[in-house]
Amino acid sequence: MYNYFMLMGRLVKDPEVKELPEGKRVMNVKLAVGRGFQNSKGEYETDFFSIVFWDYLIDFAKDNLKKGQPVLVKGRMQTNKEELSSGYNLSYPTLIGERIMFFNTVSSAHNEA
Fold it and tell me: Which residues face 75 on adjacent strands?
C-alpha cells in the first residue's frame, strides 16, 4: 500500500499557526494548484487544497512562507471521521504535509524542510 501526494502551487495566504489545548501546534496552508490542461472552454482551471502541518515543520516553515510564494509539498492523505449532531457519520480526507520545499521568488535559490 502506498499513501502519498505531491503538489506544486502558490500559497493563497500566509500560513496560520494554532496551538491546541494539549500543547501541540498545527499549521494550515492553502495552496492554489493550476491544472496542466485546458477545460472545454479553453481555460486553465485552478484547484485549491488545504494542507495541515504538525510540530517539527512549523518552526522552519512559518517564518519562510508568504502569500503568493511557490511551494512543493509532499505528504500523505488521512481520512477523518466525525459524527454530526443529527447522527449522520461524516467522513472526509485531510492532506497532511510531511515535507515542504519553498522557492524564493527573488532569486533562483530554494530551501527544503
Answer: 5, 97
CB atoms within 10 A of CB 101: 14
Cα–Cα distance for residue pair 57/72, rounded to 1 Å:
14
Has this prediction a pTM greater than 0.90? Answer: no
Dist CA 27 CA 13 (whole Å): 12
CA atoms in the 13 A half-sphere facing the CB of 24: 8
Tens-digit pLDDT profile for residues 32-56:
999 989 999 999 999 999 999 988 7
Kind of pairing between the strands at 5-11 and 89-103: unpaired
Task: Identify the sign of the CA torsion 93, 78, 62, 47.
Answer: negative
The partner residues of 97 in beta bridges, in order of sequence, read: 75
Give the residue from 58, 95, 40 showing the smallest Cα distance to 73: 95
Number of neighbours of residue 100 by Cβ within 10 angstroms: 22
